[in-house]
Amino acid sequence: MLLSRRTDTGCFAEYGEAEKTPANLMQIILTKGCPAMPHTTLPEHAPPGGATHPRFTDHLWDVTADLRRAIDDLEFLRRLGDGTLPVESFRTYIEQDGLYLEGYAKALALLASRAPDPVDGAFWATSAATAVTVEKSLHADLLNDPRLGDAPPSTEHSPACLGYVSYLTATAATDSYAVGAAAALPCFWIYAEVGRTLAASARAVLAADPDHPYARWVTTYDAEDFQVSAARARDVVDAAARDAGPDERARMTRAFVVALRYELLFWDTALHTTPWPSA
Questions:
Q1: Triad 31, 35, 41: Cα angle to 5°
Q2: pLDDT at position 142, please?
Q3: Are the CB atoms for 48 and 249 separated by under 8 Å?
Q4: What are phi and psi of 99, to 5 degrees?
Q5: Using one digit for the tens of pLDDT, what is the confidence trace for 69-124?
Q6: At CB < 8 A and 24+ separation, what contacts does 72-76 make?
Q7: What spatial distance separates the first Cα and last Cα of the chain, rounded to whole Å?
Q8: Is the Cβ–Cβ distance between 69 and 38 less than 8 Å?
Q9: Which of 142, 91, 129, 256 shows the shortest CA–CA distance to 188?
Q10: What is d(CA 246, CA 45) in angstroms, rounded to the nearest whole number?
């Protein structure tokens, strides 16, 4: 796995071997970042909407610039786009994404029930339904493709997947609506941004190899309806930030950063798997 490889290159040099368990390494990444990769330093208080940025979500994008560059540089994403990702890693990714969507849909449903604006609530509810029905159906069809190999007897959440969905549902249920919305935003926004590059690369792969086992699926990453949903999610979070005070906006920033870190871990551990300790 990628995290364990970095323990020998300075990323976790300050920690003893007994501390380098999968759970501890993931906690270090989520709370402190990794000294060997760019990481995000959070301001003590997020600026009010419009104070230094036209939109609050512009502030979220700016404070995560280093983290987003680290995502852009992920080996998993590069190889997914250029068609060199091992088929077994792609299958792992799709299996984990299916489990993630189940939990993500629950978080979105919670946001729908708590949204102060009924139109915004309808957006979250529709997104939850899409995750459960349309996206899950696409995943199931893809996993039945014999070119992706046989399905394992059972699939359990990876540490990154379980941590991510647990964080999203807990935040949506126990923090304010605005903070929960900020935590849900990276899944819309970062996929929309990364998807443009991936889809263009995958189309080039298909031109050379029309029978590539997964390139056609990757070309859908820049679908117009998903880009529209990502833009709408930004609008909803901006609206929530306008009604929030300084402390709540700071929590929104923290939630966005943590969720974006989970996005990095989710993609990275599909290629560099992080197995659970033996029972």
A1: 50
A2: 81
A3: yes
A4: -65, -40
A5: 999 999 999 999 999 999 999 999 999 999 999 999 999 999 999 999 999 999 99
A6: 72/194, 72/197, 74/264, 74/267, 74/268, 75/2, 75/268, 75/271, 76/267, 76/268, 76/270, 76/271, 76/272
A7: 20
A8: yes
A9: 256
A10: 6
Amino acid 261 reads R
Contact 263, 187 (CB under 8 A): yes
What pLDDT digit, counting tens, does each position of 165-210 carry?
999 999 999 999 999 999 999 999 999 999 999 999 999 999 999 9
Q: Could you tell me if 155 and 95 are in contact, meaning their C-beta atoms sit under 8 angstroms apart?
A: yes
For the four alpha carbons of 268, 164, 202 and 198, in that order, the dihedral sign comes to negative
Q: What is the mean pLDDT of residues 227-253?
A: 97
Distance from C-alpha of 7 to C-alpha of 253, rounded to nearest angstrom:
28
Q: What are phi and psi of 247, to 5 degrees?
A: -65, -40
- Is this structure's pTM higher than 0.85? no
Rounded to the nearest angstrom, the gap between the alpha carbon of residue 66 and the centroid of all alpha carbons in its chain is 16
